[in-house]
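hiii so um. not sure if this is the right channel but i have a protein structure encoded as tokens and i wanna go backwards to a sequence. like what aa goes where. can anyone help
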């Protein structure tokens, strides 16, 4: 009779903790990818809201409303956003800006511009 060695005869004895190790190494990467994806979707929705608000602000200025009304519209749609306006011929243009953050480290400047007929002059 031969003496039995530990680990001999058992299939996969050396791979026993490899699944747990792979999960421990892979899970943070998956969570990070999901968080960055959710942050990117949030920034995209802010961009759409910023574009819509800049169009509304340009129409307000074109009708002769004040700059405070235009700022209020943009600030309601995207809190913290700022605007600038310019006149060019028969058009009044509004540019709305906002700095979105994805996580704590990534900052993404968002900008949307829109023009409307300047009939309020």
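sure thing!! here u go:
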């Amino acid at each position: 009779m031969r003496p039995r060695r530990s680990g001999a005869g058992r299939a996969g004895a050396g791979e026993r903790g490899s699944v747990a190790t792979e999960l421990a190494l892979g899970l943070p990467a998956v969570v990070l990818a999901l968080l960055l994806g959710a942050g990117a979707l949030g920034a995209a929705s802010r961009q759409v809201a910023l574009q819509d608000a800049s169009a509304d602000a340009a129409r307000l200025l074109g009708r002769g409303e004040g700059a405070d009304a235009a700022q209020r519209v943009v600030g309601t749609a995207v809190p913290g956003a700022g605007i600038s306006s310019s006149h060019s011929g028969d058009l009044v243009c509004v540019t709305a800006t906002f700095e979105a953050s994805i996580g704590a480290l990534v900052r993404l400047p968002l900008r949307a511009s829109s023009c409307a007929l300047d009939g309020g002059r």
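oh and Strands lie at 82-88, 91-102, 106-117.
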